[in-house]
Amino acid sequence: MTAILGIDAAWTATQPSGIALVSSEAGRWRVTFAGSSYGHLMDSAAGRIPSFRPSGSVAEAAAVLAAAEQIAGAPIDLVAVDMPLSLETIAERRVSDNVVSKTYGARHCSTHTPSSIRPGRISDDLRSGFAQCGYKLLTQDLAMPGLLEVYPHPALVELTGAPRRLPYKVGKIRDYWPTDTAVGRRTRLFETWRVIVASLDGRLSGAADVLPLPPIDAPTWQMKAFEDMLDAMVCAWVGIFAFEGTAVPFGDETSAIWIPQSHLLGRQPGRP
């Protein structure tokens, strides 16, 4: 069995981080877990009912891996994380940020600019914590077990064939559709979410089952919790492509962002 953990890592300790776990037997991938925080992962592994509202915390790599392995029933091969990671201290934009922005900027998928404060120590601690568990940050070649930096926005345009960045972030719906009503904005957001979930479900068995959309009138925190799970699932999805050799690293020897490449997709994950 191959198991891949996806983490939509928050850049601050006060915000929750989405988690997704996928596994494969005989080349067929399926979703084994999706949650809106590290706490949800720990609770599920321990057989406890997770709290409804996720809470923020930072990753303790050994505990996260142990919980994921408990749920998967197998060791974790790759950890794919949406957060700036580097073998050197991050103080400004990296080569990987500039390469991705140059390649995908025309499709509105440039990276955010990291700094020594955000994500700062959270990034350093996450990378070093996983390294201590044997998961080295992979910047050029794939090796297992390993840690990957991924970025959902360019991954989604590659995997869906969209001409530009998909409008699926809760906090940006006013920017996406400034002239729409509040209900209209949510309706459009949900339409985009359905497209992404359907795309995931077409390749990952069980994705739609663990990603039911929240009610249209859900509070903002609940919608953000769904978005975090969705991002984590995309992270795990990118991990599959890296495992299968159809995602490539954009960067240098100190940091790299792994992005699927549509021209390399001889077959899609989850399909024989």
Please give the share of residues in helix. Answer: 25-40%
How far is the N terminus from the C terminus? 16 Å
Major β-sheet profile: 8 strands, mixed
Which parts are unreliable, with pLDDT below 50 for 5 consecutive residues or more? Answer: 267-272
Shape: globular
C-alpha Rg (nearest Å)? 17 Å
What's the average pLDDT?
94
Number of helices: 9
Q: How many strands appear in the DSSP assignment?
A: 8
Structural class, please? Answer: alpha/beta
Describe, in plain words, how this protein is organized in 3D.
It contains 9 helices and 8 strands. The protein is α/β, with parallel strands linked by helices and 272 residues long. Strand 7 and strand 8 (256-260) form a beta hairpin. 38% of the residues lie in helices and 16% in strands. The radius of gyration is 17 Å and the shape is globular. Helix 1 (38-45) packs across helix 2 and helix 7 runs parallel beside helix 9. It has helices at residues 38-45, 61-72, 95-104, 121-132, 152-160, 173-176, 182-201, 207-210, 220-243, and strands spanning 2-8, 18-25, 28-35, 78-81, 136-137, 146-150, 247-251, 256-260. Strands 1, 2, 3, 4, 5, 6, 7 and 8 form an 8-stranded mixed beta sheet that branches.
